[in-house]
Write a structure and sequence with these properties.
Blueprint (H helix, E strand, L loop, with lengths): L2 H21 L9 H29 L11 H9 L6 H11 L4 H13 L3 H10 L18 H21 L4
Helix pairs in contact: 1-2, 1-7, 2-3, 2-5, 2-7, 3-4
């Protein structure tokens, strides 16, 4: 049994829970903007974690000896190439990342932006505040995270994983 399969499923499930939590809020009890941001960012982190585990799941399915070392689609391709395997799943993911406007490239770009701390804002916030507050850098080309956008990324991710799992055969 591939241990990464359950990790991917868990992260996708957690993402779905977070999105449902936010989307099911009653209109008259609208949640504060900070709560929506927290739920959306948390859902994004779950999706990114699922992506990382999914790359490792593919490596394990194709019997790469050290799937835990796979951390990017490039390292997945290199790892599988070293055992003379070139699965369509890795090629599709690579293709999705090469095209700028795809859901996967947008997802990973949004995660990268949220995970990047601006050194300039860190300096100014530390010097101007008795409490060290660090702003998270937002790039202009990243859409504002909301439940609909994350829901569409989640749906696309689940569809891709399900389709790939139907095609993948443990070697």
């Amino acid at each position: 049994m591939n241990p990464y399969l359950s990790a991917v499923n868990q992260k996708l499930f957690f993402c779905n829970l977070l999105l449902k939590q936010g989307a099911n809020g009653e209109p008259e009890k609208s949640s504060p903007v900070q709560l929506e941001q927290a739920l959306c960012q948390s859902a994004l982190y779950q999706l990114e974690a699922a992506y990382g585990y999914y790359l490792q799941e593919i490596a394990a399915t194709y019997q790469f000896k050290s799937p835990e070392t796979v951390s990017s689609v490039e390292s997945l391709a290199d790892s599988l190439s070293s055992i003379n395997k070139h699965p369509a799943e890795a090629q599709e993911i690579h293709s999705l990342l090469e095209q700028k406007g795809t859901w996967l490239s947008q997802l990973l770009n949004a995660h990268k932006c949220l995970s990047t701390i601006s050194s300039q804002s860190e300096k100014s916030s530390v010097s101007n505040s008795p409490i060290a507050i660090v702003e998270v850098k937002q790039l202009d080309d990243v859409e504002t995270l909301d439940y609909d956008l994350l829901g569409s990324w989640h749906k696309s991710f689940v569809e891709m994983v399900n389709r790939h799992r139907e095609m993948m055969v443990e070697c």
